[in-house]
UniProtKB/TrEMBL annotation:
InterPro entries: Sucrose_synthase_pln/cyn (IPR012820), SUS_EPBD (IPR056736), SUS_N (IPR056735). This is sucrose synthase. It is an enzyme of class 2 (transferase). Coiled coil: none annotated. The keyword Lipoprotein does not apply. Its EC number is 2.4.1.13. It comes from Vigna radiata (Mung bean).
Amino acid sequence: EQDEILALLSRIEGKGKGILQHHQVIAEFEEIPEESRQKLTDGAFGEVLRSTQEAIVLPPWVALAVRPRPGVWEYLRVNVHALVVEVLQPAEYLHFKEELVDGSSNGNFVLELDFEPFTASFPRPTLNKSIGNGVQFLNRHLSAKLFHDEESLHPLLEFLRLHSVMERH
Protein backbone atom coordinates (compact mmCIF):
# COMPACT_ATOMS: atom_id res chain seq x y z
CA GLU A 1 0.00 0.00 0.00
CA GLN A 2 2.97 2.33 0.60
CA ASP A 3 3.82 2.49 -3.12
CA GLU A 4 0.23 3.42 -3.98
CA ILE A 5 0.16 6.14 -1.30
CA LEU A 6 3.44 7.51 -2.62
CA ALA A 7 2.11 7.48 -6.19
CA LEU A 8 -1.00 9.44 -5.18
CA LEU A 9 0.88 11.96 -3.06
CA SER A 10 3.43 12.41 -5.86
CA ARG A 11 0.57 13.22 -8.25
CA ILE A 12 -0.79 15.76 -5.77
CA GLU A 13 2.66 17.26 -5.18
CA GLY A 14 3.14 17.42 -8.95
CA LYS A 15 0.27 19.91 -9.13
CA GLY A 16 2.64 22.43 -7.57
CA LYS A 17 2.20 24.91 -4.77
CA GLY A 18 -1.43 25.47 -3.78
CA ILE A 19 -4.55 24.27 -2.00
CA LEU A 20 -6.61 21.35 -3.24
CA GLN A 21 -10.16 20.89 -2.01
CA HIS A 22 -11.66 17.46 -1.28
CA HIS A 23 -13.08 16.99 -4.78
CA GLN A 24 -9.71 17.84 -6.34
CA VAL A 25 -7.93 15.28 -4.14
CA ILE A 26 -10.53 12.67 -5.13
CA ALA A 27 -10.07 13.59 -8.82
CA GLU A 28 -6.33 12.90 -8.48
CA PHE A 29 -7.16 9.62 -6.73
CA GLU A 30 -9.40 8.60 -9.63
CA GLU A 31 -6.56 9.20 -12.10
CA ILE A 32 -4.32 6.46 -10.65
CA PRO A 33 -4.64 2.89 -12.02
CA GLU A 34 -7.65 0.84 -10.87
CA GLU A 35 -5.52 -1.76 -9.07
CA SER A 36 -3.78 0.95 -7.02
CA ARG A 37 -7.10 2.67 -6.28
CA GLN A 38 -8.54 -0.59 -4.96
CA LYS A 39 -5.56 -1.17 -2.66
CA LEU A 40 -5.88 2.34 -1.25
CA THR A 41 -9.66 2.09 -0.85
CA ASP A 42 -9.40 -1.20 1.04
CA GLY A 43 -6.55 -0.05 3.29
CA ALA A 44 -6.39 2.37 6.22
CA PHE A 45 -5.39 5.21 3.90
CA GLY A 46 -8.78 4.90 2.18
CA GLU A 47 -10.48 6.22 5.30
CA VAL A 48 -7.98 9.07 5.54
CA LEU A 49 -8.61 9.90 1.89
CA ARG A 50 -12.40 9.92 2.31
CA SER A 51 -12.08 12.21 5.35
CA THR A 52 -9.57 14.63 3.80
CA GLN A 53 -11.09 18.09 3.46
CA GLU A 54 -8.13 19.83 1.84
CA ALA A 55 -4.52 19.30 0.85
CA ILE A 56 -1.87 22.00 1.07
CA VAL A 57 0.97 21.50 -1.41
CA LEU A 58 4.26 23.22 -0.74
CA PRO A 59 6.79 20.92 -2.46
CA PRO A 60 8.17 18.57 -1.28
CA TRP A 61 5.48 18.64 1.44
CA VAL A 62 1.80 17.72 1.18
CA ALA A 63 -0.28 18.56 4.26
CA LEU A 64 -3.73 17.06 4.79
CA ALA A 65 -6.61 18.38 6.87
CA VAL A 66 -8.59 15.29 7.85
CA ARG A 67 -12.04 15.38 9.46
CA PRO A 68 -12.77 11.79 10.59
CA ARG A 69 -16.07 12.81 12.25
CA PRO A 70 -17.98 16.03 12.96
CA GLY A 71 -16.09 18.39 15.23
CA VAL A 72 -12.82 16.40 15.07
CA TRP A 73 -9.90 17.54 12.92
CA GLU A 74 -6.50 15.96 12.45
CA TYR A 75 -3.59 17.40 10.51
CA LEU A 76 -0.57 15.71 9.00
CA ARG A 77 2.05 16.44 6.42
CA VAL A 78 4.15 14.15 4.29
CA ASN A 79 7.50 14.87 2.70
CA VAL A 80 6.97 13.04 -0.57
CA HIS A 81 10.69 12.84 -1.39
CA ALA A 82 11.99 11.70 2.02
CA LEU A 83 8.86 9.68 2.97
CA VAL A 84 8.58 11.45 6.32
CA VAL A 85 5.16 11.80 7.99
CA GLU A 86 4.52 14.39 10.70
CA VAL A 87 1.41 14.95 12.79
CA LEU A 88 0.68 18.68 13.04
CA GLN A 89 -1.07 20.74 15.68
CA PRO A 90 -3.73 23.13 14.32
CA ALA A 91 -1.42 26.15 14.75
CA GLU A 92 1.35 24.35 12.84
CA TYR A 93 -1.04 23.45 10.03
CA LEU A 94 -2.25 27.05 9.77
CA HIS A 95 1.34 28.31 9.78
CA PHE A 96 2.16 25.87 6.97
CA LYS A 97 -0.89 27.12 5.06
CA GLU A 98 0.19 30.75 5.56
CA GLU A 99 3.56 29.94 3.99
CA LEU A 100 1.75 29.54 0.66
CA VAL A 101 1.03 33.27 0.66
CA ASP A 102 3.78 34.81 2.76
CA GLY A 103 6.64 32.39 2.27
CA SER A 104 8.68 31.39 5.29
CA SER A 105 8.61 33.94 8.14
CA ASN A 106 12.22 33.04 9.04
CA GLY A 107 11.62 33.74 12.71
CA ASN A 108 10.20 37.22 12.07
CA PHE A 109 7.43 38.31 14.35
CA VAL A 110 3.96 37.57 13.06
CA LEU A 111 0.88 39.28 14.44
CA GLU A 112 -1.37 36.76 16.16
CA LEU A 113 -4.76 37.52 17.66
CA ASP A 114 -6.20 35.34 20.40
CA PHE A 115 -10.00 35.43 20.34
CA GLU A 116 -10.35 32.74 23.00
CA PRO A 117 -11.27 35.21 25.79
CA PHE A 118 -14.27 36.31 23.73
CA THR A 119 -15.55 32.77 23.28
CA ALA A 120 -14.81 31.43 26.76
CA SER A 121 -18.41 31.89 27.94
CA PHE A 122 -19.92 31.00 24.58
CA PRO A 123 -21.74 27.65 24.56
CA ARG A 124 -20.21 24.88 22.48
CA PRO A 125 -22.24 22.09 20.90
CA THR A 126 -21.22 18.73 22.31
CA LEU A 127 -23.71 16.45 20.59
CA ASN A 128 -23.24 15.47 16.95
CA LYS A 129 -26.86 16.40 16.22
CA SER A 130 -26.16 20.01 17.27
CA ILE A 131 -23.31 20.48 14.79
CA GLY A 132 -24.69 22.19 11.71
CA ASN A 133 -27.75 23.42 13.60
CA GLY A 134 -26.16 26.45 15.23
CA VAL A 135 -29.21 28.73 15.29
CA GLN A 136 -31.39 26.06 16.85
CA PHE A 137 -28.65 25.23 19.36
CA LEU A 138 -28.25 28.89 20.39
CA ASN A 139 -32.02 29.41 20.63
CA ARG A 140 -32.31 26.47 23.00
CA HIS A 141 -29.35 27.64 25.07
CA LEU A 142 -30.60 31.23 25.34
CA SER A 143 -34.17 30.13 26.12
CA ALA A 144 -32.97 27.83 28.88
CA LYS A 145 -30.78 30.58 30.30
CA LEU A 146 -33.48 33.26 30.03
CA PHE A 147 -36.27 31.29 31.69
CA HIS A 148 -34.16 29.41 34.22
CA ASP A 149 -35.35 31.47 37.18
CA GLU A 150 -36.88 34.84 38.07
CA GLU A 151 -33.48 36.56 38.30
CA SER A 152 -32.75 35.63 34.70
CA LEU A 153 -35.66 37.78 33.50
CA HIS A 154 -34.31 41.03 35.01
CA PRO A 155 -31.96 41.85 32.09
CA LEU A 156 -34.87 41.42 29.66
CA LEU A 157 -37.13 43.60 31.81
CA GLU A 158 -34.44 46.30 32.01
CA PHE A 159 -33.95 46.17 28.24
CA LEU A 160 -37.69 46.58 27.65
CA ARG A 161 -37.89 49.46 30.16
CA LEU A 162 -34.88 51.19 28.63
CA HIS A 163 -36.45 51.10 25.20
CA SER A 164 -39.92 52.01 26.49
CA VAL A 165 -41.59 49.07 24.82
CA MET A 166 -44.75 49.24 26.94
CA GLU A 167 -45.24 52.97 26.32
CA ARG A 168 -45.47 52.50 22.55
CA HIS A 169 -48.34 50.00 22.67
